[in-house]
């Protein structure tokens, strides 16, 4: 990707959540932010903010979109077009879409049908993020036909996983077979926080805990500026109780629901949507009550207390592993608009005592974004993910090699990581076996980690595909021999359902 000079392009950043869409149009040193909040409730709030533009006044108004995600997406694109025409700006020539559940890959990647298919495939991981994201992408492509469009992944780490295999309590063959790796999320928010600490407070290599409290909630451990843990690991419902997401619940709870007849096709909606603080408050997720109103309503005190306790428990768990963590960042709309939350949560987590909580609250009440006692420091950070997205678009880092698998077909679903060998050697069965039509195939040989079949005629691999299915070995058919030959002797990440092949070594 060729770097884009800031003065050459109008850049559009779109940050889709599960209940909001935030966007920013950059034109030299001027900027317009357009946000639609509370999607899913009966009434939405729209905010249009002009920065370094004195000819226009900021606006706040209401819409009644409800839970119509496509209408929310089309409304945003319409508002963006209106702003561009009003300001007489050129249409953006580059758009960055913040996405979460797009599978493992580069921080930034050109939007393609394959990426959209992966977003559709991973829809089960998100409350509504992927559905809303796909709607926004569809309307953006239709309205800005000449625009380069990219996805910017929100993964906390670009590596294959935050975990080492010995930290995942399953057999190694299960870990490999089902791709039990976690990248973590709220990665862009983490980058924005660390950038603010360095620029504003002169802290280049922060060590401590970052707690994000918005619609999504996450706790992230950072050591010397690098993320070492993130509570939103595999899906949006991981970690503490959130806006309308259940938070981590015992696996037995889900198994019980299924065993007692709960429809499997409704499980994602129940865990990801009709739950969280709305579930604790016994309110429908499409009511008129916002999370902020729940937090400030004495009627919902018990729900609020349990919500805060779930966040505090995650912090307690991490600080129990590392007693030297005394620095705490709190970011996200709820944390910065309600400074009392940070000391309250740390008190519940047994990090500070009531007197320290009172002192920290007193300091933060004066409008300060920092507070400290003898042993504890708190930073309240207003994050700007759009600036991070813009910077990534302007100065992309080298990306791993992503192989073109257009036209490939998943024979057996699964995920694995390993070295690709032609056929398989008798001494190494911990590899991915690539087969061409004329490759010898030993039915009695021990199975490899995965198969890649490559040829112009899929029927040539009928017997081999049957063997793979009977042994439950992840298998991908590729109709490009040229691409397949490039894979030999490379170490790759292979995800057959999404037809993803990425060099990782």
From TrEMBL:
It holds the Pfam family Acetate_kinase. SUPFAM superfamilies: Actin-like ATPase domain (SSF53067). Keywords: ATP-binding, Kinase, Nucleotide-binding, Transferase. PROSITE patterns: ACETATE_KINASE_1. InterPro entries: Aliphatic_acid_kin_short-chain (IPR000890), Aliphatic_acid_kinase_CS (IPR023865), ATPase_NBD (IPR043129). Belongs to the acetokinase family. This is Butyrate kinase. The lineage of its organism: Bacteria, Pseudomonadati, Pseudomonadota, Gammaproteobacteria, Pseudomonadales.
């Amino acid at each position: 990707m060729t770097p884009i000079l800031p003065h050459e392009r109008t850049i559009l950043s779109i940050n889709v959540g599960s209940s909001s869409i935030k966007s920013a149009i950059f034109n030299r040193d001027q900027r317009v932010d357009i946000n639609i909040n509370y999607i899913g409730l009966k009434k939405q709030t729209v905010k249009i903010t002009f920065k370094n533009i004195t000819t226009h006044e900021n606006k706040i108004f209401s819409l009644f979109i409800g839970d119509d995600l496509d209408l929310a997406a089309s409304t945003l694109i319409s508002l963006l077009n209106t702003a561009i025409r009003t300001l007489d700006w050129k249409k953006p020539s580059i758009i960055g879409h913040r996405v979460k559940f797009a599978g493992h890959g580069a921080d930034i990647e050109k939007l393609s049908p394959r990426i959209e298919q992966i977003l559709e495939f991973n829809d089960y991981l998100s409350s509504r993020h992927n559905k809303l994201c796909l709607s926004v992408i569809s309307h953006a492509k239709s309205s800005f036909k000449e625009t380069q469009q990219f996805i910017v992944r929100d993964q906390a780490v670009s590596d294959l996983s935050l975990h080492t295999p010995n930290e995942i309590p399953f057999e190694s063959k299960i870990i490999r077979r089902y791709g039990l790796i976690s990248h973590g999320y709220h990665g862009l928010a983490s980058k924005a926080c660390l950038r603010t600490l360095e620029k504003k407070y002169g802290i280049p290599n922060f060590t401590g805990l970052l707690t994000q409290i918005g619609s999504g909630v996450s706790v992230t451990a950072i050591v010397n500026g690098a993320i070492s843990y993130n509570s939103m690991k595999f899906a949006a419902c991981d970690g503490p109780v959130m806006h309308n997401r259940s938070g981590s619940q015992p696996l037995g709870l889900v198994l019980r629901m299924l065993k007692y007849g709960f429809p499997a096709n409704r499980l994602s909606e129940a865990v990801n949507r009709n739950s969280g603080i709305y579930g604790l408050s016994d309110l429908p997720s499409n009511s008129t009550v916002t999370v902020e109103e729940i937090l400030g309503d004495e009627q919902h005190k018990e729900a609020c207390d349990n919500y805060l306790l779930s966040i505090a428990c995650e912090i307690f768990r991490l600080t129990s592993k590392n007693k030297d963590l005394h620095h705490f960042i709190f970011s996200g709309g709820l944390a910065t608009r309600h400074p009392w939350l940070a000391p309250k949560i740390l008190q519940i987590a047994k990090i500070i005592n009531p007197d320290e909580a009172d002192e920290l609250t007193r300091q933060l009440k004066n409008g300060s974004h920092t507070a400290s006692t003898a042993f504890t420091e708190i930073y309240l950070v207003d994050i700007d993910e759009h600036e991070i997205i813009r910077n990534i678009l302007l100065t992309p880092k080298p990306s791993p090699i992503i192989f073109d698998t257009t036209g490939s077909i998943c024979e057996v679903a699964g995920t694995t990581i390993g070295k690709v060998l032609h056929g398989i050697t008798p001494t190494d069965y911990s590899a991915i076996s690539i087969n061409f039509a004329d490759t010898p195939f030993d039915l009695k040989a021990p199975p490899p980690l995965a198969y890649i079949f490559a040829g112009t005629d899929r029927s040539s691999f009928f017997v081999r595909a049957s063997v793979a299915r009977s042994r439950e070995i992840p298998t991908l058919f590729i109709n490009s021999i040229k691409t397949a030959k490039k894979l030999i002797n490379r170490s790759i990440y292979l995800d057959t359902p999404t037809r993803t092949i990425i060099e990782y070594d």
